[in-house]
Specification:
The chain has no helices and 19 strands. The protein has about 200 residues and is mainly beta.
């Protein structure tokens, strides 16, 4: 939130804090014991969340860099995190083919969405707040209604693992990269057509 501090993570569980103006590493924290797969900064609160292979999500104060809270209850590695547009919920995707929703005010898991056909590799929340895109290791990306917990659409991407995805601000187009050739594609989720 200060516009100057950057955070990065490593494959051996370290959280690194950088000064973006000087390029200097200001602090190194032993956040997890194994690979940190996901890191996300809260846009308005002094918080950073990390998720790792040790099946936990940790919240860090960007003022003191102390661990404030740990979310547990997973059976597999946590691979991806996404903050809801209203900044009240954290969606957590893991290898157990589920996305768990945590209420950041009550610090409780409010529901679990099961995606039994897909290992959750990447997730991103629609800017309008009621849809979640899920990209998987099997080349599918799914679109879930977070209000009804229904899978709205499933699209197979023949180009390989969905490496990353992000919504366009219009809430209709989804930008995606894949691991086969690391090409970028843009999908219209209403028509399920690749437009670029």
């Amino acid at each position: 939130p200060d516009g100057r501090t950057l955070a990065s993570s490593t494959s051996d569980g370290l959280l690194q804090v950088w000064d973006s103006e000087t390029g200097q590493c200001k602090r190194v924290i032993r956040a997890h014991q194994v690979t940190i797969w996901a890191l996300i900064a809260h846009p308005t609160r002094p918080l950073v969340a990390t998720a790792s292979e040790e099946q936990s999500v940790k919240f860090w104060s960007t003022k003191t860099w102390d661990c404030l809270r740990t979310f547990q209850g997973y059976d597999n590695s946590i691979l991806t995190l996404a903050l809801s547009p209203d900044e009240q919920q954290l969606a957590v995707g893991s290898q157990d083919q589920a996305v768990r929703f945590w209420d950041l005010s009550t610090k409780t898991c409010t529901r679990v969405l099961h995606d039994r056909n897909n290992c959750t590799w990447r997730i991103d929340w629609n800017p309008k707040g009621h849809r979640l895109a899920i990209g998987g290791l099997d080349g599918h990306f799914n679109l879930w209604d977070t209000l009804s917990d229904r899978c709205l659409k499933i699209k197979h991407n023949a180009l390989g693992i969905v490496h990353n995805l992000a919504w366009h601000p219009d809430g209709i187009h989804l930008v995606m990269t894949t691991t086969s050739d690391y090409s970028l594609s843009i999908w219209n989720v209403e028509t399920q057509q690749c437009v670029q």
